[in-house]
């Protein structure tokens, strides 16, 4: 077989052309797959709950999402390994976020918006963000995928978020009675949104307070203020998507270290409100706003 001599600039051009041809298939597959029809999906990435009555809040939010986006297939995932394991023991299966996204990729979805029910950009949220980012740009994967911001993430939105939380307060509340919201809290810097929320709540209703189970402000901080103001009754409301284990035990339980019991020791009566925020209309509207912003990123 005879060879055609290639030298100098021509040799380099030939090698570059060959390299381009070799890379062309991988470049075409690097972000989705050309020529396939667009298929839109929404993944509701919940932390999860194993409390049956608490799940009602998630079902309410899910129904609102489906009503707002009837052309999108909506799926659900739970990020908590412990909760998924508990549900599996009773015969209920819920995918993890990783599994749910992998299934959506295998099922041919091209554009996926992931809506988180998390309240703050803490450790759990950043872990979810890394998971979503891992699915971006996979060969034969999604053309576009985006994760929503948490409920509390934009300082410009905080007055509206605070007002939405206040709409969960029972109408029978009387003057002089206080409201104590229980948040989860974290040692992550994202915890700063809880004292930030306190500022906006106080500007709307001076007798409303935010406490956390694992961060700051704490219940001790709130009790001191309640005693100074001679408050005799409070409404305890979970600042969480669902009224699950934290709400039913840490907040409203009969154990001596529950918030209800601690307040009672100081002569303050309490009425727990066991309703998750995801099921409150005003809060669900904020979630839908976050979802709309996320879908805009997919265009």
Automatic annotation (TrEMBL):
Its EC number is 4.99.1.3, 4.99.1.4. InterPro entries: Anaerobic_Co-chelatase (IPR010388). Keywords: Lyase. The keyword Lyase applies. One of its GO terms (biological process) is anaerobic cobalamin biosynthetic process. CDD domains: CbiK_C, CbiK_N. Pfam families: CbiK. GO terms for molecular function: sirohydrochlorin cobaltochelatase activity; sirohydrochlorin ferrochelatase activity. It is an enzyme of class 4 (lyase). This is Sirohydrochlorin cobaltochelatase cbik / sirohydrochlorin ferrochelatase. It comes from hydrocarbon metagenome.
């Amino acid at each position: 077989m005879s060879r055609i001599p290639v030298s100098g600039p021509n040799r380099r051009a030939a090698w570059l052309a060959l390299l381009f041809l070799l890379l062309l298939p991988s470049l075409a597959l690097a972000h989705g797959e050309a020529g396939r029809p667009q298929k839109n999906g929404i993944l509701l990435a919940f932390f999860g709950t194993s409390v049956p009555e608490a799940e009602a809040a998630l079902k309410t939010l899910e129904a609102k999402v489906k009503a707002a986006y009837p052309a999108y297939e909506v799926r659900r995932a739970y990020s908590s390994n412990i909760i998924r394991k508990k549900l599996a023991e009773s015969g209920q299966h819920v995918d993890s976020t990783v599994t749910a996204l992998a299934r959506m990729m295998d099922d041919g979805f091209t554009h996926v918006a992931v809506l988180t029910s998390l309240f703050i950009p803490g450790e759990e949220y950043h872990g979810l963000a890394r998971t979503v980012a891992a699915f971006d740009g996979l060969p034969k994967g999604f053309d576009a995928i985006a994760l929503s911001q948490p409920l509390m993430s934009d300082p410009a939105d905080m007055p509206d978020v605070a007002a939405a939380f206040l709409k969960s307060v029972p109408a029978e509340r009387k003057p002089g009675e206080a409201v104590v919201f229980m948040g989860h809290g974290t040692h992550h810097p994202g915890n700063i949104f809880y004292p930030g929320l306190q500022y906006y709540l106080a500007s709307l209703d001076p007798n409303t307070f935010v406490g956390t189970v694992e961060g700051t402000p704490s219940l001790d901080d709130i009790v001191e203020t309640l005693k100074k103001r001679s408050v005799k009754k409070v409404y305890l409301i979970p600042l969480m998507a669902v009224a699950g284990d934290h709400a039913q035990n840490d907040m409203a339980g009969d154990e001596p270290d529950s918030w209800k019991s601690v307040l009672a020791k100081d002569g303050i009566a309490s009425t727990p409100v066991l309703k998750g925020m995801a099921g409150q209309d005003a809060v669900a509207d904020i979630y839908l706003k976050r979802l709309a912003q996320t879908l805009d990123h997919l265009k």
